[in-house]
Amino acid sequence: MLNKITGIGKSARGRDLFLFIVSLLLAFGIWLIHMCSLEYSDIVTVPVIAKSNIEGYSYLSTNQGDVAARCRMSGFRIIRFSRSDTKPVVVEFSAADLKSEGNGTFTITASRLSHYVNQIFGEGSSLESFVTPEVEFRFTRENYKKVPVQAVPLLTFKPQYMAVGSLQLKPDSVVVYGEEGILENIDRVMTQPLNKSNISSSIHGFIKLDTPANVRVSESQVNYSLEVCRYVEIRENVRIKVRNAPAGKTLSVFPSSANVVFRCSFPPGNNPVEDVEFYVDFNEFTKSISGRCIAHPSGLTKSIIDYTLDPQVFDCVENLE
Asked: Of 119, 139, 259, 289, whose Cβ has the fewest other Cβ atoms within 10 Å?
């Protein structure tokens, strides 16, 4: 019986010791997590790979530059950056912040690096001062070609609304990188279709580019904008006049008049088409083989957005006085 009691006592003491050790380790872990979550000021070094749209060069640097700075950050982050196997951080720099030193070498100064603190050291880090005065990156040259961007608009408007001018893109051209043989066949980069319906006000936004296969493009999207306004139609019948006829010569125009439909911004104001004239140019007639000429407008005001002329082409016959 005594042996049984002694065995039970030893088992209880062992269990108590185990629970004490576990509690001690748990308390230490909680204390360690609390201490590491606090902010500290220390010098940290972060390896950085540069990403930038530098015309004529690769997108990523071939080397990594070490950025050293005194920062205030959590203890967890300081411990992570103090490890020798820290993975480099890819930071996208503006090409304007990188200074060319020749032979594909570019540097960025500490004053410019201050714009990228969160990207380099992480959100919530507070920069106190840079230890590194500047960082050097090397980029390789690549075949490239600058081409225009062409929009693919699929737009419809509400009745009595229309576009004023054409769709504007910014930037309106991009740099394409790739093999020489592929670049020879690329003369533009298309946007993805811009599909909007029942438009009744000006539109703007971003639209992605349709990147050709096996190449890299300097931009993945462009900004678009289009001015839209309400219009009213004004219909007139106008005589077709002749201009620049030399002395002793005249032109007979057939038909001598045309129907024109003006689209004017709403409200149109005081008769915006009152001073508009349409004419054929005698000099164009002399260069024409068929004697047919296009009528040109004059006196168009800013409130006239567009017009259609019926007919558009006129037969002309030269007369001698």
From this structure: 289
DSSP labels, 79-134: HHHHSTTPPPEEEE--GGGPEEEETTEEEEEHHHHGGGHHHHH-TT-EEEEES-SE
Q: Which two tokens stand for residue 312?
A: 């558009």
How many other β-carbons are positioned within 10 Å of the β-carbon of residue 47? Answer: 15
Question: Do the beta carbons of residue 66 and residue 46 sit within 8 Å?
Answer: yes
Q: What proportion of the chain, given as a percentage, has pLDDT over 70?
A: 83
71 phi/psi in degrees, rounded to 5? -130, 160
> Residue 226 has which token pair?
């289009």
Q: Would the CA dihedral through 241, 244, 246, 247 be positive or negative?
A: positive
Q: Tokens 């959100």 identify what position?
A: 123
Nearest Cα residue to 68 out of 19, 130, 13, 25: 130
Considering only CA atoms, which of 96, 102, 87 is closest in space to residue 116?
Answer: 96
Tokens of 100: 């060319």
pLDDT tens readout for residues 81-114:
666 567 888 999 999 999 999 989 999 999 899 8
* Backbone phi and psi for residue 261, each to the nearest 5 degrees, phi listed first: -115, 115
Cα–Cα distance, 293 to 240 (Å, whole number):
11
In contact, 272 and 304? CB cutoff 8 Å: yes
The CA angle 77-78-81, to the nearest 5 degrees, is: 85
Which amino acid is present at 118?
N
How far apart, in whole angstroms, are the C-alpha atoms of residue 27 and residue 269? 82
For residue 255, whether the previous peptide bond is cis, meaning omega lies within 30 degrees of 0, is yes
**What CA–CA distance (Å, rounded) separates 110 from 126?**
15
What order do you get walking across the sheet with 99-102 strand by strand?
99-102, 105-109, 134-138
3-state secondary structure of 137: strand
